Amino acid sequence: MLIRSNKTSDLTENDVTDEKVYRDRRNILKGLGFIGAGSLLTQPAHAFNWFGSDDEDLFQTNELTFSQPRAFQSDEALTPEDKVTQYNNFYEFGTGKDDPYANAQDFKVDPWTLTVDGLVENPITLSFDDLFKRYGLEERIYRLRCVEAWSMVIPWIGFELGKLLKDAKPLSGARFVAFETLFDPEQMPGQRSRFVGGGIDYPYVEGLRLDEAMHPLTLMSVGLYGKTLPPQNGAPIRLVVPWKYGFKSIKSVVRIKLTNLMPPTTWNILAPHEYGFYANVNPTVDHPRWSQARERRITTGGLLARNRIETQMFNGYEEVAPLYKDLDLRKFY
Ligand SMILES: Nc1nc2c(c(=O)[nH]1)N[C@H]1C(S)=C(S)[C@@H](COP(=O)(O)O)O[C@H]1N2
Ligand SMILES: [Mo]
């Protein structure tokens, strides 16, 4: 009998099972012809939602069609779907981790308008349908590292922001990209009340340098786990910048504006000594109130399970290092 030691790996059997269930489900859907048909499928997700609840009151997500480039698949254990969609930061719906799931289910995402303007030759307006049809969608499994020292591994679906920006044709003076979340206090209780919304001046705003925005890892996400985004994760479209702390990955984006000056960003306005513009994941630069050397990876087990791993420079995406070769990352945190 072969006796295997667990010591060489911190993968548990449960970690592997989550991913396997997801793969099997995808393969079955493929076999049934539901995936890969070439167009956005509009079947309500609950018809296929084999391990979620069928709760009628939940926001309806839809199956997406997308490719799965090998370079963005991963052997890492995925964070289970129910944790990705029920443990969130989205202060527009409340500051508690379970507030977005509890408060965002009636959020209206269609119609939606995303505009790209500012220092561009060719301003662009995308409708709700355009978000899913204008660019081919890809699945990308990325690590998400929150500045609060927890992390997830999430199978996003989306397209490179760089493709959209290229179509808009940035003018030579454009050096930064500013992003803005929908402002709609009627729908977002955190925008109605400073108490619910954590004292933020809404709309939530974020920004990147133009070269960061053009980097092939920078994603506009319209889905996760094979389906359109639920509102708590930033439906219908949100940014994902995997080498930066999660707060850079702004949700429910309505405007992308190219500028010549570094744009203001929500957490930097709120606490500039704690949150910088760059916010690159960096285990050697601690938050003033806690260490960033390690993180709690959310996989299976309870939400507070002790599953500590070492944080990696740039969250493990070292290919972005050349973007910062001339920058003191201690100063520009
Ligand atoms: N508009 C907006 N975007 C936001 C936030 C927010 O409060 N409002 N929270 C950020 C933070 S702190 C994190 S960690 C990620 C969380 O994304 P997720 O809930 O999809 O995992 O969203 C980011 N984007
Ligand atoms: Mo975060």
TrEMBL record:
Catalytic activity: L-methionyl-[protein] + a quinone + H2O = L-methionyl-(R)-S-oxide-[protein] + a quinol; L-methionyl-[protein] + a quinone + H2O = L-methionyl-(S)-S-oxide-[protein] + a quinol
GO terms assigned for molecular function: oxidoreductase activity
InterPro entries assigned to the protein according to its UniProt record, in alphabetical order: MsrP, OxRdtase_Mopterin-bd_dom, OxRdtase_Mopterin-bd_sf
Cofactor note: Binds 1 Mo-molybdopterin (Mo-MPT) cofactor per subunit.
EC number: 1.8.5.-
Signal peptide positions (record): none
Cofactor(s) this protein cannot do without: Mo-molybdopterin
A Pfam family: Oxidored_molyb
Residues involved in Mo-molybdopterin binding: N88, Y91, E92, C146, T181, N233, R238, S249, I250, K251
Gene3D superfamilies reported for this sequence: Oxidoreductase, molybdopterin-binding domain
UniProt keyword annotations, A-Z: Metal-binding, Molybdenum, Oxidoreductase, Signal
All residue ranges annotated as the Oxidoreductase molybdopterin-binding domain in the record: 107-267
Family classification: Belongs to the MsrP family.
Protein function: Part of the MsrPQ system that repairs oxidized periplasmic proteins containing methionine sulfoxide residues (Met-O), using respiratory chain electrons. Thus protects these proteins from oxidative-stress damage caused by reactive species of oxygen and chlorine generated by the host defense mechanisms. MsrPQ is essential for the maintenance of envelope integrity under bleach stress, rescuing a wide series of structurally unrelated periplasmic proteins from methionine oxidation.
Subunit architecture: Heterodimer of a catalytic subunit (MsrP) and a heme-binding subunit (MsrQ).
Protein's UniProt name: Protein-methionine-sulfoxide reductase catalytic subunit MsrP
Organism: Alteromonas arenosi
Gene: msrP
